[in-house]
Amino acid sequence: MKTIEVKRMLIQKIEQINDPKILDEVNRLLEFDLDSSEKMVLSNDQLKAVEEGRAQYFSAQIKSNDQLDGEIEEWLRK
To answer: In sequence order, which residues have a C-beta less than 8 Å from that of residue 26 and are 6 or more positions away?
Structure first.
């Protein structure tokens, strides 16, 4: 679907919404998307967590989603 078609479809759907909570949420999502060009500022703890995660990734200390799903299944069977 072309961009213009998606925009028109979204406009039509939004025009049909009467629930203020849903409209607020749609507005919040659109504002997030428009503001996503701004840089995110992380705290020192957040930066440390990101650095630890990157180090684990690059040293192959990670598990695949399938491996983790298997572990969860094992835990649930206990």
So the answer is: 14, 17
